[in-house]
Design a protein that fits this description.
Elements lengths: L10 H10 L8 H36 L9 H18 L3 E8 L3 H7 L1 H17 L6 E6 L2 E7 L3 H16 L18 E7 L6 H26 L1
Antiparallel strand pairs: 1-3, 1-4, 2-3
């Protein structure tokens, strides 16, 4: 039935009766009342179903989204990784994953407080969304860790994308309006980039990206130490 059938009562009842092809004028009072009551019950059930569907959609959205950032949470991210792997295996297309971990994030919370720390995480999520495609999967994996799945992207393409992520986050200057000393902090990002291998599952792909991120973080620390 079309949705416009269920316009405000009693119009919806008359429309439903017309669709059913029932001639109320040919019925006695009791039969007419029974048909009208049945139509009202059908309309009420349709309204309840519509409400339940809306609640289900909202619950699904909340279940997939991170509690703080406008990104997938880890559970939803891992599900999407599995889905992208299935597509890459079926169509034999490249697939890459970037594991992003913020550098020097703890001092932000220690110096400016968790409200500023939360604002930084939201800003990072906005950066990730702004430099990725609509078809890419972006999620917060926990704490100050993020993941990006790049479908149909080569390792070289993904390394270039990781370089953009690093450059944008490295350039962030963190301040707090409540800090009387006007202090500034810089964070930064270490990105591990890996490409999917046929036969590899989601857990192993994420693990390899995590390991690549730690290797990158160690390299960045060594570089800073050498410069100092």
């Amino acid at each position: 039935m079309a949705d416009d059938v269920f316009s405000p009562r009693p119009d919806r009842r008359r429309a439903l009766i017309d669709i059913l092809g029932v001639d109320l004028s040919a019925m006695d009072r009791h039969a007419r009342a029974a048909i009208e009551a049945l139509c009202d019950e059908v309309i009420a059930l349709r309204e309840e179903l519509s409400t339940l569907r809306a609640a289900l959609s909202e619950a699904e959205l909340l279940a997939d989204n991170d509690a703080l950032c406008p990104l997938f949470n880890r559970r939803a991210f891992e599900r999407e990784v599995r889905r992208e792997i299935a597509l890459a295996a079926r169509f034999r297309t490249p697939l890459s994953l970037i594991f992003v971990d913020l550098d020097h994030f703890k001092p932000v919370n220690d110096l400016f407080g968790h409200a500023t720390g939360d604002a930084v995480l939201i800003k990072v999520s906005e950066i990730l969304r702004s430099i990725t495609r609509e078809t890419d999967i972006v999620g917060r994996l926990g704490g100050d860790e993020f993941g990006i799945v790049l479908s149909q992207a080569t390792l070289s393409d993904s390394e270039n994308k990781a370089a953009q992520v690093t450059e944008r986050i490295d350039s962030l200057v963190i301040r707090s309006p409540d800090d009387p000393e006007g202090r500034e902090l810089h964070i930064g990002a270490s990105c591990g980039v890996v490409s999917w291998h046929p036969g590899e599952d989601a857990d192993h792909l994420i693990l390899r990206a995590d390991q690549a991120m730690f290797a990158r973080k160690a390299h960045r620390k060594t570089g800073r130490s050498a410069q100092g």
